[in-house]
Write a structure and sequence with these properties.
The protein is α+β, with helices and mostly antiparallel strands. The chain has helices spanning 8-15, 50-62, 112-116, 142-159, 195-203, 220-233; strands spanning 28-33, 66-72, 82-88, 95-101, 131-135, 163-166, 178-181, 185-187, 212-215, 241-250, 253-260, 266-275, 293-302, 309-310. The chain has a nine-stranded mixed beta sheet with strand order 4-3-1-2-6-5-7-8-9. It has a five-stranded antiparallel beta sheet with strand order 10-11-12-13-14, with helices on one face.
């Protein structure tokens, strides 16, 4: 007799959990094609040569906020060689580099640190088109394959070779999860019918707020402030705002100043972190739900206004 587990994504959706402010903080991304069945600990359990694993592990240790994703294509995308992406996720002008390897040992001769600082010798590998990574690692969490695989298939039909399956990106309960690189834009709760909207928004240089988890170049509280600002202004351009300053009022409350890169206007957003009203399962198979945190918009103002706009508490 088998016991049916409660899906964490279902738990999260039913609770109406706040989606934004949940992107995994990442400045540097490595995405390596490894077309095999991934285990729960995908990188550690992979068939990659030991010296390659050691080389990549050391690279990850050299810089904070760095992630390694294993990626693969679905059926019908068999290609030659091994694809390796490196994304540098700047706030304003992120870049994506693409390399075609003959064998995994080629990584041992690749100056990953040099790519991160964007040395001129690597400019020839600059990729202009974004890629979409859909988490389908069912060994890590059942929700990722149950919800992620249909989204991957739909996105593959719509955006073709720019779409990859990937290992865990963080936040099983928000499955299906998609990350766009080099922009580091996270989306969650996706269904196949959302695919065209997400891809079209990315191609237009905008974000789709209803499924937006945040930008990985920001910490979670900054992601929340950025989203609240977009909600209030109605501005969706991915690189419209620049974070100028953060003032910590308490350990769970901050004031943020953002600049509008187009109009030079400045915005002030005050955000507080608080306990969510409803408990959720963080992962499938957990015995009991937890009350996690969410963010609340406390105050908002656009400089140049006569009176500061205060929101009700």
């Amino acid at each position: 007799m088998t016991t049916e587990i409660t899906l964490c994504s279902t738990s999260s959706r039913q609770a109406g959990e706040q989606l934004f402010g949940t992107a995994t903080r990442t400045d540097y991304w490595l995405a390596l094609e490894v077309p095999q069945l991934w285990g729960r600990k995908a990188f550690e359990e992979s068939d990659l040569p030991a010296d390659v694993k050691n080389h990549l592990s050391k690279a990850l240790e050299t810089r904070p906020n760095t992630r390694l994703q294993l990626i693969k294509k679905g059926p019908g995308f068999a290609g030659e060689g091994i694809t390796f992406f490196v994304a540098v996720n700047h706030e304003e002008q992120p870049n994506l580099y693409e390399f075609q390897l003959t064998r995994y040992e080629d990584l041992l001769d690749l100056d990953i640190a040099g790519i991160w600082v964007e040395r001129q010798e690597f400019w020839q590998y600059d990729r202009k088109e974004a890629i979409f990574l859909t988490c389908t690692n069912g060994k890590r969490d059942p929700c990722c394959v149950r919800f992620g695989l249909p989204v991957f298939e739909a996105m593959k039909k719509y955006a073709g070779e720019n779409v990859w399956q990937t290992t865990h990106v963080g936040g099983h309960r928000f499955a299906a999860n998609v990350v766009t690189l080099p922009h580091g834009a996270f989306y969650g709760y996706l269904a196949p019918e959302d695919v065209s909207v997400i891809v079209d928004a990315q191609r237009a240089g905008t974000v789709h707020l209803p499924r937006f988890r945040g930008r990985s170049c920001y910490e979670d509280h900054v992601q929340a402030a950025d989203t609240f600002l977009r909600q209030r202004t109605g501005l969706r351009e991915l690189y419209r705002f620049k974070l100028i300053e953060i003032t910590e009022l308490t350990p769970d409350e901050w004031t943020f100043h953002f600049g509008d890169l187009l109009t030079q206007e400045t915005y002030c957003v005050q955000v507080r972190r608080e306990l969510a009203p409803v408990a959720v399962l963080k992962s499938c198979g957990e015995e009991s739900p937890e009350r996690l945190t969410q963010f609340k918009l406390v105050d908002y103002a656009a400089y140049g206004e006569v009176d500061r706009v205060s929101l009700p508490h």
